[in-house]
Amino acid sequence: MRLAIASAFLLILSAVPGWAQGKSPPPIPNAIPVAVPSLVPAGPPLGVPSRAAFSGSSSASSYLRPNVQTVVANSDSDNQQVAQVLRRPRPGEEPVDDTVRGDPRERQGAPIPAGRARSYEELQTRGDIVPVPDRWRILEGLGFKGKWYDPYNNNVLKGDKPVYGKDGFVLLNVISDTVYEPRAFPVPVGVATTSRPGTNDLFGKPDQYVFNQNLITNLTLIKGNTAFKPPDLELRITPVFNYNYASVKERGLLRRNPERGKSRSDNHIGMQELFLDYHIRNVSDRYDFDSIRVGIQPFNADFRGFMFLDNQPGVRLFGTRNNNIFQYNLAWFRRLEKDTNSGLNHIGKKIRDDDVFIGNLYYQDFPVLGFTSQITAIYNRNTEQKFFYDKNGFLQRPAAIGIQRPHDYKVGYLGYNGDGHFGRTNLTVSGYYAYGEEDGSIFTDEKSDIRAWFMAAEPSIDYSWTRLRGSFLYASGDKDPFDKKSKGFSSIFENPQFAGADTSFWIRQNIPLIGGGGVALSQRNGVLPDLRSSREHGQSNFVNPGLRLMGGGADFDVLPQLRLSTNINHLNFNETDVLEALRNEGEIRSSIGWDMSASAIYRPVMSQNVVFRLSYAALLPGKGFKDLYHTENEHFYTLLANLTLAY
Amino acid sequence: MTAKTITCILAGLVALLGGTMSAKAQNLSGLDVYRVISQAVQEAAVRNRPATIAVTDRVGNVLAVYQMPGAPPTVTVNSGRNVRTGIDGLAGVVPSTMAAISKAVTGAYLSSSGNAFSTRTASQIVQRNFNPGEILAPGGPLFGVQFSQLPCSDLSRRYFNGASPVPPDQFRGPKRSPLGLSADPGGLPLYINGVVVGGVGVAADGVYGLDADVSDIDTDLDEIIAVAGSSGYAPPQDILASRITVEGKTLRFSDVDARALAATPGLAPAVNPAGFIGVTGYSDVPILAGQTYGSSASGVRPVNAVSDGPGYANVAAVAGFVPFLLTSGADAPFFPVIPGTANAGQNLTAAEVPVILGHALRVAASARAQIRRPLQSFVQVTVSIVDAEGQVLGQARTPDAPIFGIDVSLQKARTAAFMSKQNAAANLENPGVFPSIRVVANAINGLIPNHAYTVPNYVTNMRAFVGPGSLSDGIAYTDRAIGNLARPYFPDGVSTNGNGPLSRPVASWSPFSTGLQFDLAVGNIINHVLFVRNLNLDVTGDGRGDFDPDGNGVVNDTGLGCTPVVSNSSGLNPLANGLQIFAGSTPIYKNGVLVGAIGVSGDGIDQDDMVAFLGLHNASVGLGTGVSHAPAAIRSDQLAPAGVRLRYVSCPFSPFINSNEQRACEGK
Q1: How far apart are CA A272 and CA A580, in angstroms?
Q2: pLDDT tens-digit series, residues A62-98
Q3: In this predicted structure, what is the pLDDT of residue A111?
Q4: Which residues contact A123 (CB under 8 A, 6 or more apart)?
Q5: Which whole-number Å values give the CA distances from B81 to B46, B125, B133, B219, B522, in the listed order?
Q6: Which of A98, A460, B53, B433 fits a disulfide with A426 by CB distance 3.0 to 4.6 angstroms?
Q7: Whole-prediction pTM value?
Q8: B563 and B524 in contact (C-beta within 8 Å)?
């Protein structure tokens, strides 16, 4: 009985973005045509695989995670939707033979009921047919008519009916995403002044909280026969209206100026999407295609957001071949400056001197059915020579560590990524090799060769309503900060949907490297300890300690409305020499500690329209963390309460 | 003549042999000095930029000064800020020799076997932001250190030209630095076998300034010539400033290296002996060999538990190792341990002083150094204890602490004691010293237009800023608190704000014109410049030189003791080596009464703070005689002028070498 309920639930889940289970279709990379109007807001990066859901990221809500200075822009929701629409038949399913037309009953040799009309005229006469203006208004013709605002019935705002001509559609989505996040991580008390008398040391009171409200509005104009074939033209605009508030216990944390108090409220309107998508041509009668998209658009360079998952302006040529077996992307992005406190795009600022060139190829059902392989080549060129301070007065470029001189870097990444399943075992893998050159390494100020690598894998297996999961990640570290090699792995703009994702303490929180410069040990919504000033504004840094992560977790679909997830990761630095040099402190050990988290996702109406998520994570500091921070009698945690309402 | 030629050839040969000389000694021999000079001269000559070059030993003895024909005779003091106050903007007055010596002394004094710092390093850490130019960043960690080792310091030894018989301390250090420490690139330390043995300083470009922008890479003539000079005497790579981080930022050692040289140093030819010159107050013509640091002759040596008396024996016993001290005369301690003068019935006894010194050194020996490599080195500092009137009750140091901390630790201790004492306001306003000061101020006006005696104004500022009873209400000030009040922005680094009450307004502020600190010493500094040049000005027009009170036509040197301040309670000078305005001291109380202060200098400022603060705390616990920190209720961190709390101390992250403990100073 329970099994039946569970499988029914899975079915429901699989129809809902972000909830697809192990039986879900293979992840759909960016190359998938995305012009299909989705019921959930579009905008966030495409191609995040279904299992992102397990890592605790909530659908559209993950557009934004508020923070002292960071926010994420990411969602996997609509991709699932797209996946549902475009899924190819899976093993065990009846293949659709669309080469044969006509009444399927005929094909199956079934008898045709007597009295079948033989002509259009006869149909009309018999009243079996009602004339309607077009295929979009069949239901209307039959007398079904919803309220104008009702998204569950035929609705102009949801792209169900054309608003101009026969194939001009409008799609409107509105999402409210509210986050309340109490948390505690090590903080300094500030150099110039302190909050309280008697503060004689460097480490302050860690407790703080943030509140963040996003209103994501997404308007899409589509020309084309939407659900029936890829649209010809799509224009999308997604402004996000943000308000954020942070409260801490020490001065100088929220703003560099210690006079500016211990709380901060701020707001911003970010442009997360603004693009035109032109369907160049179809290259097969299965709608393999070539398409070009110009403007601010979501992009994910791999399945799990390890490398570049962002909404940036660019030009992207993409398409599919061989009945969607192959998908490709050729893209160039020039990165926008972000708004410091909302993490949203800041189109009012000068665009960054940072280009990302990406070419990738997805190969479905390779090497086995149900597994998608991707190879990618990425080139990131950063020539930011000007000093840049964020909104709060903190120096972001160059980072306030080491030589602190502006420097360029050029780095190529070669990567292999895979996602899918081998038999019952689900597997995601990712591997990158970084090869390039820094013009002025942070310690030597001399040319330095970038040679770094990264690997991650997440196998999982389902037992009924339970999924068990393992997470493994290795990012190379730099052993000698003073040589002419930069061996620490750094990405472009990570947003990892991995090992607990933003439920995890380490991935979620921005832990400042107190005493070691104006950088964070790990970024907010980042897993790599790449010692950047921030993920939003900072440059990549290839002189870093690197990371080893080993973890496991389990997901429990307790009720159709409720999923519980647990996760435990053990984290280690690979090489602590960089940290030792930055702090002039010897013998920093490698263990960061145990990161333990649990989350509950509650969807009272079993849809993505109302999602409540509550998660909690704690860090049990390891020896290395204790070497760096005051940990005695401190409790480092993150609590995340998140409500998403979607129209 | 022939002999000279032979010497020159020999010296040239020695220069050719290069490193072979450096294998055996830990002091600079005369030939080493000659080699450094000849290498520098060659580089300057090839570039056709005549230079003035000075070489000192580690304790500041000037071993040689060489001036090439055509070298700029004077330097223009210029911070680049165009403020034209203090000595900033002073042109045509300061001899290049003083600049070169100051730079050599700075290279030698800031360095040790654990850290090699240069004048460029100094430049990076004395400006109003750290790093210089970084908006909203608090000031340099050694903000104000440029006004230490002052020529008027009562601690520094002096050289008496041609004195006969030779005074016993003629070649003992630490010697004063003619212009204080220098931030002008072109002063480098010299090393032999990984041991700092001295410094070389070059003045060739005619400017005595600083590097206001560390984000670019300079091509500084003085520095290039100094790099040439130091070739073969360069510090080990691993202890260069560029490998040492403060707040995660690496320090600058030199913007150029040997690749920038136009000539090969090892091939330097002999120099024209006529270029060697004597400098009044610093050196005579024959090249000297450097003293070996640690020997009695150098003036800094290990404590001798037998001959230095029970006080220092006890310091060693409490510290757990044999510290170093200053020596004088017939090898006696320069600062014998003495009891403090009574203050409101309380004083530090001769038994208590060594315990405090010992505990402070003990803390240092267990603490993680911020500015030394290899990592896991312990803190090396000098610790000074003064009584409430600024009189030295004892001083001791770890063996390899940088020399500059000898003077600075005393400045810091005196600053804390002086500013915490209830007569601080009165002493700064002391009408008794006005007449003589006015004369000096008028005299200085000949050099620095618009200079006025403004010291009492700072008291007014303090009253307006901190409270009407300021500097007379018995608030306990550490040098960290005083330093924060002496920044051109308040709070420190916030450039949209005005200055702290002890600083000049930012429009007229520069590292050459800091505020109360500078104004207290400007008379001494100018007097000394005129003394070295023997420029007998008579701006006041009374028929005799302004600094020639005996009217013999020769400018007198500045007296022994900086600042015009005279304590109204003791009649002594409580700031006799100048005021210091960066962290590393804390006042000492006994049964609730101010009895003195402890000052520490030589490592990171948080380390200095901790050694002073924890050292006193531990001593207080060990002694049980009522010696203690200031009660929490009267510490400066109870004050929040303009809403900004005045920190008392700030102890460092990961304070100890072999411990996870992080909050070492909490609740103490």
Answers
A1: 39
A2: 333 333 332 233 333 333 333 333 334 444 444 444 4
A3: 52
A4: A117, A129
A5: 32, 17, 12, 20, 19
A6: A460
A7: 0.89
A8: yes
pLDDT tens-digit series, residues A134-192: 777 777 777 777 788 888 888 888 888 888 888 899 999 999 999 999 999 999 998 88
Distance from CA of B246 to the nearest CA of A (A): 7
Looking at the DSSP bridge assignments, the partners of residue A458 are A428
Task: Please report residues of A whose CB lies closer than 8 A to that of B668.
Answer: 200
Per DSSP, what are the bridge partners of residue A219? Answer: A172, A237
Tokens of A554: 């389990």
* A347 vs B447, residue with greater confidence: A347
Handedness of CA B350, B351, B353, B357 (dihedral sign): positive
> Strand A520-522 vs strand A233-247: parallel, antiparallel, or unpaired?
unpaired
Q: How far is CA B419 from the centre of its chain?
A: 20
Helix (H/G/I), strand (E/B), else coil: B110: coil
Q: Are B654 and A583 an interchain contact pair (Cβ–Cβ within 8 Å)?
A: yes
Pairing status of strand B74-77 against strand B207-208: parallel
**H helix count then E strand count, chain A:** 8, 23
Model-level ipTM above the cut of 0.95: no
A219 to A59, A519, A632: CA distances (angstroms): 18, 37, 51
Q: Among residues B350, B396, B392, which one has the least CA distance to residue B561?
A: B392
State the greatest distance between any 2 C-alpha atoms of chain B, in Å, as a whole number: 75
Q: Sort B174 into a burial class: Cβ within 10 Å, 0-12 / 13-18 / 19+.
A: buried
% of chain B surpassing 70 pLDDT: 96
- And the tokens for B465? 């800023």
Q: Which residues of chain B does A389 touch, with a Cβ-Cβ cutoff of 8 Å?
A: 135-136
Integer Cα distance of B185 and B227 in angstroms: 11
Q: Which of B136, B484, B635 sits opposite A197 (nearest CB)?
A: B635
Six-digit token string for B38: 């000849």
**More confident site: A40 or B578:** B578
Amino acid sitting at position B615: G
Rg of chain B (C-alpha set) = 23
Length of chain A equals 647
- What is the 3 state secondary structure string of A538-588? CCCCCCCCCEEEEEEEEEEEEECCEEEEEEEEEEEECCCHHHHHHHCCCCC
Q: Do B643 and A259 touch (CB under 8 A)?
A: yes
First to last CA, chain A: 34
Report how far residue B78's alpha carbon sits from residue B97's, in angstroms, rounded to the nearest whole number: 17
**Structure tokens belonging to residue A326:** 């192959």
DSSP H or E stretch at residue A396 = strand A395-397
Rounded to whole angstroms, the Cα distance separating B585 from B417 reads 9
Which residues face A419 on adjacent strands? Answer: A372, A428
- Cβ of A515 within 8 Å of Cβ of B214? The answer is no
The closest of B654, B651, B647 to A630, measured between CA atoms, is B654
Q: Rounded CA gap, A274 and A295, in Å? A: 6
Structure tokens at B20: 């072979």
Distances (CA, A) of A644 to A19, A70, A267, A609, B542: 15, 19, 19, 7, 87
Give the span between the Cα atoms of B15 and B265, in whole angstroms.
Answer: 8
Q: CA B35, CA B11: separation in Å to the nearest integer? A: 7
For residue A34, the SS3 value is coil
Helix axes B352-366, B309-319, angle to 10 degrees: 30
Beta bridge partners of A239: A271
**Calpha distance B316→B362 (Å, rounded):** 9
Average pLDDT, chain A: 83
CA distance A544 to A402: 12
B366 touching A (Cβ < 8 Å): no
Task: Measure the CA angle with vertex B342, ends B338 and B344; round to 5°.
Answer: 155
A356, A492 contact by CB (below 8 A)? yes
Supply A602's token pair.
């509650």
Note whether B274 contacts A: Cβ–Cβ < 8 A.
no
